[in-house]
Write a structure and sequence with these properties.
Blueprint: H1 3-15, E1 71-76, H2 85-90, E2 95-102, E3 106-107, H3 111-120, E4 124-130, H4 138-150, E5 162-164, H5 179-197, E6 202-205, H6 207-214, E7 226-229, E8 247-251, E9 259-263, H7 267-275, H8 299-310, H9 323-336, H10 346-352, H11 363-374, H12 387-400, H13 410-417
Parallel strand pairs: 1-2, 2-4, 4-5, 5-6, 6-7, 7-8
Antiparallel strand pairs: 1-9, 2-3, 8-9
Helix pairs in contact: 4-5, 8-11
């Protein structure tokens, strides 16, 4: 079922005064029942509405991330009913996180089936809490979470509880809290959870929400592992305070029910994480998108200008990020439903890049050709992706340790512009 349609249906029910909840929506376990949006209130529920609207007509979409060699898992809520966990395990899932609670008066009606069923199928599992910082204090919600399935035991099959702190499905993005108040709330939750269980919770969030609502605070990163949500094809760059991530939610749908996740490590590392402290490896070099703004100059700006032209702008490509380029970036961000700040960061890069290969022509090809030349793989910047350009791309990919397929997709773009 389409989650946006489900959310719309719930909203319609509220507007028309209906008292019944849609099929699949679990009621609060304790009174009073809240206006729960089970089809909306789950990990990543707000991320889809903060992503680009989609591929530009006539341009090929960016490829999905390559996670073939990573340890795969999933996260689910009551929206996914009566799951066939043996089948999920047979498809290759190694771990699962299950929504247990929200605020202080909701527990998932599917929690037992999902939490116990995943363990019975051999998955290492954990529980998560959907935070509502405007309802009660962080320590109060940590206590509620622990009391309703979110605890931890050193049995080798239980992951530490997760704090899902993200876009507010009921109102103001930051729940009406200042940045300092939000950090105090998160710290209180983390401290209380540690006091109750002996483990710090893993913090799930998005880079955009973290920047907006905490001011890029580095405080939680001193203790809490990171679960980063990003559907752009890369887990990086990371929010301030973290130099690596433990989990990455990389897609809202895929092989498994619910959201798709990967663990930064091996199965042995996952078992170590279940038992106690685990330090994941840092992201590989060159895995971050650059942040480019007005007054910047050089080949990266040239690539931005060519890519903006590929999306319909009419910029003079001069490698100088002046007012005209900033205006074009802002207009593009508005068109894509992004924050229109005139700064080209990860989300804007993800929307800008166009996968190109032999036979393609146009400004996006020129962007790739100019970047190849900047990386000592000289090629004519003529907008024609012929055999010479393909050879240069393949050579660059070999140099960077990428799959040498001669196609400029997300990974190659990221290395070209970094």
């Amino acid at each position: 079922m389409n989650r946006r349609l489900a959310a719309a249906a719930i909203g319609l029910a509220v507007l028309t005064g209906l008292t019944g909840l849609p099929h699949g929506v679990a009621r609060a376990a304790t009174a009073p029942a809240g206006p729960w949006h089970e089809a909306v209130d789950h990990m990543g529920s707000g991320l889809a509405t903060h992503r680009p609207a989609g591929a530009v007509p006539g341009l090929r979409a960016a490829a999905v991330p390559n996670t073939a060699d990573t340890l795969k898992g999933l996260d689910v809520s009551a929206y996914q009913e009566n799951l066939d966990w043996p089948s999920v395990a047979a498809q290759g899932a190694s771990f699962a996180y299950v929504k247990a609670t929200e605020g202080v008066n909701y527990t998932s009606g599917q929690f037992s089936q999902q939490y116990n069923g995943s363990a019975a199928a051999g998955l290492i599992r954990g529980a998560y809490h959907f935070a509502l910082p405007d309802v009660s204090g962080g320590s109060t919600q940590a206590d509620y979470f622990v009391a309703h399935g979110g605890g931890w035991s050193d049995d080798g099959r239980t992951l530490p509880g997760a704090l899902d702190i993200e876009y507010n499905p009921y109102g103001a993005t930051c729940y009406g809290l200042s940045q300092s108040a939000m950090i105090s709330w998160i710290t209180a939750f983390s401290t209380e959870y540690h006091s109750r269980t002996g483990r710090y919770p893993i913090v799930y969030s998005t880079r955009d929400w973290w920047s907006t609502c905490t001011g890029d605070s580095a405080t939680p990163g001193r203790y809490d592992p990171l679960w980063i949500a990003d559907y752009s094809g890369s887990a990086t760059p990371l929010p301030a305070g973290w130099t690596t991530y433990t989990l990455w939610q990389n897609a809202a749908a895929g092989t498994f029910p619910g959201d798709q996740d990967v663990f930064n490590g091996t199965l042995a590392n996952l078992r170590t994480f279940a038992h106690g402290t685990y330090t994941p490896p840092p992201p590989p070099p060159g895995s971050s998108w650059p942040v480019v703004s007005q007054n910047a100059t050089g080949h990266t700006v040239t690539a931005i200008q060519y890519l903006l032209d590929a999306h319909g702008a009419t910029l003079a490509v001069d490698g100088d990020f002046g007012p005209a380029t900033r205006s074009a970036v802002t207009a593009f961000q508005n068109d894509q439903g992004l924050t229109a700040d005139g700064i080209v960061g990860p989300d804007t890069w993800h929307a800008l890049i166009v996968t190109v290969s032999q036979g393609d022509t146009g400004p996006a090809v020129k962007a790739a050709q100019d970047e190849l030349t900047a990386h000592d793989h000289a090629v004519a910047v003529d907008g024609d992706f012929g055999p010479a350009t393909r050879s240069a791309v393949t050579a660059f990919q070999n140099d960077q340790g990428l799959t040498a397929d001669g196609i400029v997709g997300p990974d190659t773009w990221q290395h070209l512009v970094s």
